[in-house]
Amino acid sequence: MKKVISIAHICLFVTIYSCAQQGNKMDFEKYEPISNLVVPEHKLTRAKFPFIDVHNHQWDMGNQDLKNLVTDMDKLNMAVMINLSGGNGNGLKKMTDNVKKNYPRRFIVFANINFSGIGETGWTEKAVQQLEEDVRQGANGLKIFKDLGLSVKDNKGKRVTVDDERLDAIWEKAGQLKIPVLIHTADPKPFWDPVDEKNERWLEITTHPGRKRGPNDPAPWETLIEEQHRMFKKHSSTTFIAAHFGWYPNDLTKLGTLLDAMPNVNVEFGAVIAELGRQPRAAKKFFEKYQDRIMFGKDSWAPEEYATYFRVLETEDEYFPYHKKYHAFWRMYGIGLPDDILKKVYYKNALRIIPHIDKTLFPG
Ligand SMILES: [Zn+2]
User: Fold this and answer.
1) Residue 6 above 70 pLDDT?
2) Geometric angle at alpha carbon 55, from 49 and 56, rounded to 5°
3) Residue 170 pLDDT greater than 70, yes or no
4) How far is the CA of 144 from the centre of ligand 1 (A)?
5) For 302, which DSSP code?
6) What separation in Å is there between the alpha carbon of 26 and the centre of ligand 1?
7) pTM of the predicted model, to two decimals?
8) How far is the CA of 38 from the centre of ligand 1 (A)?
9) Three-state secondary-structure class, residue 268
10) How far is the centre of ligand 1, averaged over its atoms, from the C-alpha of 246 (Å)?
11) How does pLDDT run across 44-78, given as a tens digit for each residue?
12) What separation in Å is there between the alpha carbon of 42 and the centre of ligand 1?
């Protein structure tokens, strides 16, 4: 019998071969295997206790219909939202007016500093006066964005560091006014590292190239973080909240050492829950030891993403997915915090640190 290798056979062979080739070279973003693990699951869409989100941004709160926002908050059991994007002056007043008129118990607004013109004569005095005025208009805290340290320049074009002396009077004033300063300095350290196969944020930098930094863009990561710590230490009677676990969520031993050295500093875990969810045992020890210093923060307002936070904090679930691959290509494990610590993290610490939150919204 004569063997014939037809065109069809060759085509079939080529197809199988190229599929195998493609299979070996599957795109990292595409690879999403379904876990075969069968373990108890507790998908939480609502926090166990009413909570305060200390790190939220509502940029247009002055014009916003707050009813929809409150409906979404109620679904999550979020009793109070702290809007860190209050701005200052008239813009801030419009926001606090809207809140007072419609939902005075559900929102707290933080002011921001306008850094333009820093270095000009009288800039510091004006900024301090503005802060006092903003607090009179209903601001209950000050939020400093990461542009300070990264991109804010003075009137001579020089980078303004977080510990710049021209800002000292602002930090002191916040202390006198008994309002906390929530401050975000620098960004995750891997943004400063080479963008290669060893970088855990490779996907984030590749999909968001603007986030890449370097030793001269504008300074080494360590330099920026040390500037922040020097400022914290210099203003020991002002209460600070270091956003995003002070960018040490990956090194809780180091963060603990810092909190020990700076009793005026607290932390919130906005955008870094994936770091805690991959080290549930170390995280639990950290929460036990620093239970009076940690607050609930989320940062971006995406209501469906809060489920991951609740699940990491409240359950002992294992190997469950995070909601953004560029933050975490790994899976989460629940820390399983006991109720007494959960209550502190969800609301008790914020009630102590941030003024004028209505205590009657929370269990005793
Ligand atoms: Zn933020």
Assistant:
1) no
2) 95
3) yes
4) 9
5) -
6) 34
7) 0.93
8) 36
9) strand
10) 12
11) 999 999 999 999 999 999 999 999 999 999 999 99
12) 28
